[in-house]
Amino acid sequence: MINISKLRVDFISKGHSKKIIERVDVNVDRGESLVVIGPNGCGKTTFLHTVAGLNDSYSGEITIEEDRSKVALILQEIGLLPWKTVWKNATLGLDLNNMGDKSRTEELLDRLDLTKYRGDYPTQLSGGEKRKLGLVRALSVDPKILLMDEPLVSLDEFTREKLQNIILELWKEKDLTMMLVTHDIEEAAFLGERIVVLTSSPASVKEVVPNEPMGEVGFRRSENFYKTAQRLREALP
Predict the structure, then answer these.
(1) What mean pLDDT do residues 112-127 have?
(2) pLDDT > 70: percent of the chain
């Protein structure tokens, strides 16, 4: 579904070149949930932005076996438009793509308990509600691939785990192919069928950790979950 080969990214500023990603080779199968984790500043966001098509200054190959209109991206900053209501933010992707059917948006707003805020503005929402709205907007266009850059950053542990559960449920129900970037070890262990551990900058793949029991009932409290989290702790630079 997503094939990344020999990816290298260099940033050039004032005539100086800095290597951000040295070499990354990653494949994501259809319907798989792949998590990318690494230390702060290692190039995780740059990696995801490059895969999403937001950065064309790279070498190597990125192949996505799906129409780009079926690829949705959730940015770390969420990118909500403060002058638009919750409803207008939620349906932004549909409007930009001239997609008329907004019943999916209605369903998602209701499921994530945001319907009561549809006439409000982003400044009136809590951090968790903003993160939910970002998820609604991304899923409203019925994507096949969902790319997420630290989608739950800065949330309290309770809210974070609740939203992780929602993401897991939607991944299963919608048969999504997911790639999630995070610095949170427990989040990686909970949401990743495979977890790619990056080195410090410039990033390359240090280890790929399999996590087949992910998604099983009660996994968060299982021995396998703690074993995976511990392995990630040991693998991170």
Answers:
(1) 96
(2) 99
* Res 172: pLDDT: 94
Whose CA is closest to 190, among 215, 171, 173, 170?
215
Q: Where are the domains of the chain?
A: 2-66+144-235, 82-142
Order across the sheet with 71-74: list the strands. Answer: 58-64, 2-13, 16-28, 203-210, 194-198, 33-37, 177-182, 145-149, 71-74
Tokens of 175: 């048969």
- Contact by Cβ (8 Å): 191, 164: yes
User: 50 with 36: CB under 8 angstroms?
Assistant: no
pTM: 0.94
- 2-66+144-235 has which fold? Rossmann fold (3.40.50)
* 3-state SS assignment for residue 188: helix
